[in-house]
Give the backbone structure.
Amino acid sequence: MDILLLKRKGLTQREIARKLGISRNTVKKYLEKKDILLKPDPVIRASMLDPFRGNILAWLEEDMEYKATWIYDHLRPMGFAGSYEIVKRAVHEIKEERQRIAYLRFETEPGFQAQVDFGEFQVDNPDGTIRKYYLFSMILGYSRKIYAELIDRCDLPTFLDCHIHAFD
């Protein structure tokens, strides 16, 4: 496809060959027979696992910790005659898709939402005592701007004060 794109941009066969690091004859061949560049439609074959896909999805919906070996062992008595590798690939794809969906970015309208959280930190003082500090953080949903404040106490009045400081 690069060859056709470069030709449309007005480059000569010699310039295309030099830019792509290929022979001029190769460029000429592909320009004369453009159908060579078009990839054939992929052949979609039925899998031996297709009749059991509902079972796999149901088991993984029940518990994402089920391993492919456990699923394979339960499919065999149901009449599955395929290999463990087929099951392993299918389980991996399903888990990967669910994992990807779990981490999709959450978008909001401006001024609609903020997320607030506390974090706890321990500081070792030079005299050997340990002091706890808390980090209040507020992240705006739309702009992802953050406000953070280090505080001594994690109680309701401090929590509300931190909100006031964040909005100021």
